[in-house]
Specification:
By secondary structure, the chain is α/β, with parallel strands linked by helices. The chain folds into 2 domains: 9-126, Beta Barrel (Elongation Factor Tu (Ef-tu), domain 3), CATH 2.40.30.10; 139-285, Rossmann fold. The protein contains 6 helices and 13 strands. The chain is globular.
Length: 286
Amino acid sequence: MKITEYDISNPYTATVKNTERITPAETAEVRHITLSIPDATFHYVEGQSIGVLAPPPKTFGNPHHLRLYSIASSRGGEKGELSEIAICVRRCFYIDPINGERYPGVASNYLCNRKPGDNINITGPYGRQFHAPKDNNCNLLMIGVGTGIAPFRAFIKHIFDERREWKGKIRLFYGARTGLDLLYMNKEKDDFSLYYDEDTFKAFEALSKRPHLDDDPEIEGKLMDNALEVWDLMQDPDTHVYIAGLSSLERTLDRIFTALAGSEKAWADKKDELIKQHRWSTLFYD
């Protein structure tokens, strides 16, 4: 679905309650932003996104600039407050391909510059790529990179804090360039360690071998290190797979799973089976 096709006719006014940097000063800025949305008609579930209507550059000629952000809170609300949600925002910049100039990303910089008490216009929620299985015995295989961790934070909080007594295996493979970039898993913000004592939950951190060269995280190496368990999980009819991150991650995973399956056809057949059985869920962004 193209960004221009989203319905933005019924926006909500959200107020920034809190904004905190969750990466150290020496690395890329990523902020965990808590929004208060007092409108009782706003409801969402894990895996959905909101649209942020940021003021556009004057050259755009449009009244707003729409950008989607995954909700990082479970349906119970951020820290149990039903009227509050959190989003994870990386301050982005881009290089103009014509003049080579560096420009700030419109929505990300707008959000990262907001202060507590500021109002922003949001729309949605949109989509629902991630559905938690009703059966607590199901296994969950989660793979994410960068801010793709946000929907998994919501998902895991829902499972352990609200569903409780999850009996199936939960495996989270998360990639970042450095240990400092492990969003929600570093010293600035460490949410996932709350669940490390759960018998069913294990998290695997995949870091770049050459972060100074901006190499991609070694998600491939981490998955191959655990290839036997990953592939065994995929053969289990009770396993559901969830993937979130940049669109390039899809190609990387197809290559990895082709190697695990033994051939392109074997992986294509397995992927088709997972999709048809509604056990393959993805959330990719550019």
